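Quarterly update, task 2.4: protoporphyrin IX containing FE-bound model.
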Amino acid sequence: MDSSRQSFLVRNDFLIRRLHSLCGLIPVGAYMVVHLIVNASVINGAATFQNNVLNIHKLGALLPLVEWTFIFIPILFHAIFGFVIIAGGMPNTHNYPYAANYRYTLQRATGVIAFFFIMLHVFHMHGWIHNESWLHYVVEPLGGGQFRPYNATSTAGEALQNVVVVVLYAVGITACVYHLANGLWTMGITWGVWTSPRAQRRASYVCGAFGLLLMGVSAAALFGIRAAVDDPAKLRQVRAQEDLMIQTKIATGEVQENSHKVADPLPTEGDAPAAGGESETSAAAN
Ligand code: HEM
């Protein structure tokens, strides 16, 4: 039984490896780049980010199909065969240059970190699946499912206020970016694009520059979203702006009404903790 499974992997080694490699770039890597750029668009203001998120949600009922076909299934495929490769379940026919051994190890380590980070991130923002009981009894008590697409900046920003969460995201995103940038370089070897040591060295610089650029985009996304609502006044202002945008777009039929995509209203100012309320009142009186 086990040997037939083994022989399936061995027999189809070439095809599986090529699909695994291709999948890392298209659609997974391409999606990751677009996702980070859309998130970083928050540095242009909460309205820009909200508009970009709404453009994605205009797909309506098609969105889950598109997400599963072009994002979740390819990531799962790449991750499952990534773990098989790491576990040595497939012959290692790749001969990377000797000096690049540490990068070979880091590629595997960052793949594993990326897997756990992506699972955590999708749980934290979306709660994995949108089943009422699952969301109510499991996701919400564990602090997951915090993102609401119709209040994109305010809900994502609130979810990123905790310093531990920011550190986890910074580590996870750095691992993903390294994995993609170094993966581009190993892809060039897999597909025979750069074969001589000289060409591989040049490709290293290009992939390194791409990684640094994407790291900058990632930092803008993470810290931009967090900073957009890092005090109660900003949060209220952003939330009011988002609510107005959504009402307008629903009225014009640009987006569809959907209570699951809207955040719970913020507590009214009268509900604020007494100490904060007092100091604000006395500051105003002074
Ligand atoms: C952010 C999501 C991910 C992206 C964008 C991505 C992208 C890539 C790319 C472009 C490659 C290079 C393929 C090649 O060398 O031909 C690669 C390789 C690899 N990936 Fe991923 N990957 C992701 C997530 C994962 C996950 C979750 C795992 C699970 C452990 C994983 C495991 C691997 C492994 C083991 C390799 C090396 C394959 C080899 O050397 O033959 N990746 N990845």
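Highlight for this quarter: Confidence is low (pLDDT under 50) at residues 273-286.
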